[in-house]
Amino acid sequence: MIRLDGTKVAADLQAELTQTAAGLREQGIVPGLAVILVGNDPASKVYVGRKEKMAEKIGIKNFAYTLADDTTEQQLLELIDQLNQNDQVDGILVQLPLPDQIDEQKILQAIDPAKDVDSFHPENVGKLMQGLPGPKPCTPNGIMKLLAAYDIPIEGKHAVIIGRSNIVGKPMAHLLLEQNATVTITHSRTKNLAELTKQADIVVVAIGRPNYLTGEMIKDGAIVIDVGINRLEKKLVGDVDFENVAEKAGYLTPVPGGVGPMTIIMLMVNTIKACRLRRTP
Ligand code: NDP
């Protein structure tokens, strides 16, 4: 089994992005990323901290906003409007989930699509569906980059995705389809799910259930991508029963150190891209 090392691939991309950012700085351009955190969710705080740290390392200027738990939808919309107008801000990210009083869709739709570095705005989702150029969502695009870094061919492969969220499952299907995979999307109502995963050349699991995918559910040599992040008492685990699946899989992503670092670095890729598109001829 070959471990798909997201930490290493992300570090290589980080080095490239740092050079690109330095080149932009020579032209007097400092890419800017605004990260908005509303409330005190501990996991969200950790993710936001990692994103800000990575931006800083690369030479992207952070515009960090930590808002109180009782922030109103209107207040958040006003902040987004200011950031949309701010020429120094190339990317705007609102960390999800948001508190109940705020309509997530309304917020995501308020972000200028040109600054939508998470690619959750319906305009960018539509572009992805139609195969038009635009920012690609970070987690699934990170997975595609990881597969490419290991020269894993996608064309003609049967990919089974477990999970159909807007953030992972659905965009993952489009990116795989774009590269000519045959894609099956499964979810909590799928019957005989293991029958499908056993036929898969590529399995992407994104459900948030610790150790869900076992060796019996895959075929020999399968490429297994574990998106899940589950915090158990003493450690972080994915949706894949790692030891068990490792005996049968051809390639497998670890948790941590697989998809997670790729997600963060793709956010930086999208920020630098958004900056170049907006600010360079
Ligand atoms: P959601 O909760 O939005 O979606 C979960 C999906 O899994 C749903 O489609 C659900 O089906 C499906 N599902 C749940 N249980 C089962 C089951 N037993 N069998 C089959 N399908 C099931 O989650 P996200 O997509 O946002 O995240 C999934 C996981 O990935 C989480 O652990 C999250 O923390 C992690 N994650 C990791 C990232 C990274 O960078 N590594 C980035 C984003 C997420 P249904 O639609 O029918 O309810």
Spatial separation of the terminal alpha carbons: 46 Å
Name of the CATH class of the largest domain: Alpha Beta
Low-confidence stretches: none
Counted beta strands: 11
Mean pLDDT, to the nearest integer, reads: 97
Q: How many distinct domains?
A: 2
Name given to the CATH architecture of the largest domain: 3-Layer(aba) Sandwich
CATH-assigned fold name of the largest domain: Rossmann fold
Provide the gyration radius in Å.
19 Å
The side-by-side strand order for the widest beta sheet comes to 1-11-8-7-5-6
The total count of helices amounts to 10
Proportion of residues in extended strands: 15-25%
Helix content: 40-55%
Q: Which molecules other than protein and nucleic acid are bound? A: NADPH dihydro-nicotinamide-adenine-dinucleotide phosphate
The ordered string of helix (H) and strand (E) elements is EHEHEHEHHHEHEHEEEEHEH
What structural class do you assign from the helix and strand content?
alpha/beta
Question: Could you describe the 3D structure shown?
Answer:
This protein is globular. The chain has helices at 6-26, 42-58, 73-85, 104-110, 122-130, 138-149, 169-178, 193-197, 242-246, 259-279, and strands at residues 2-3, 32-38, 61-67, 91-94, 158-162, 182-186, 202-205, 223-226, 230-231, 236-237, 251-252. The model has no long low-confidence stretch (mean pLDDT 97). It has a six-stranded parallel sheet. The termini are far apart. It folds into two domains: 27-112, Rossmann fold, CATH 3.40.50.10860; 138-260, NAD(P)-binding Rossmann-like Domain (Rossmann fold, 3-Layer(aba) Sandwich), CATH 3.40.50. It has 281 residues and is of the alpha/beta class. Helix 1 packs parallel to helix 10 (259-279), helix 6 (138-149) packs across helix 7 and helix 6 packs across helix 10. Bound molecules: NADPH dihydro-nicotinamide-adenine-dinucleotide phosphate (NDP). NADPH dihydro-nicotinamide-adenine-dinucleotide phosphate (NDP) binds at residues 139, 162-165, 167-169, 186-189, 193, 206-209, 227-230, 259-260, 263.
